Amino acid sequence: QVQLVESGGGLVQAGGSLRLSCAASALTFSSYAMGWFRQAPGKEREFVAAISWSGGTTDYAASVKGRFTISRDNAKNTVYLQMNWLKPEDTAVYYCAAARGYSSAMYYSTSQRYDYWGQGTQVTVSS
C-alpha cells in the first residue's frame, strides 16, 4: 500500500524557516513526479511546488517563488520543501502528493494530476 508521510511542520515566527519532508513507500519513487500543496482554513487546496521524476525541472506557485525550494532524493524516496522567509499567509496544512509520469514539472501544477496523497503536516507562521 502506497504511503506518503510528511514531517517537519510546526510553529515558526514570520521570517523564519522550516524544512518539510515527505517519505514515500511502496511505489517506484523515481517513476513519480512529486508535488506540495497546502490548504488554509476556509480555503481550497492550492498548488505550492512540483518536481519532475528526475528532479530536472521544478515549478512553483507565484506566491512562494524565490522563498521555497523543492528537491528530491530518489535514493531515499523522499521529497523536501525548504521554506524560507515565511509569512503568516503561509499558514496551512501542507500535503505532499505523487503523480506517476515523466513530464515536466509544470504539468503537475494541478491536483487532478496526482495519484497519491499524504495526510498533511501543519505549518503555522506567527506574526
Can you give a write-up of this model?
- This protein is mainly beta and about 130 residues long.
- It has strands at about 5, 10-15, 20-25, 30-40, 45-50, 60, 70-75, 80-85, 90-100, 115, 120-125.
- The strands form 2 sheets. Strands 2, 4, 5, 6, 9, 10 and 11 form a 7-stranded mixed beta sheet that branches.
- The protein is globular, with a radius of gyration of 13 Å.
Task: Give a short summary of the structure.
This protein has 127 residues and is mainly β. It has no helices and eleven strands. The N and C termini lie far apart (40 Å).
Secondary-structure topology with pairs:
Elements: E1 3-7, E2 10-13, E3 18-25, E4 32-39, E5 46-51, E6 58-60, E7 68-73, E8 78-83, E9 92-100, E10 116-117, E11 121-126
Parallel strand pairs: 2-11
Antiparallel strand pairs: 1-3, 3-8, 4-5, 4-9, 5-6, 7-8, 9-10, 9-11
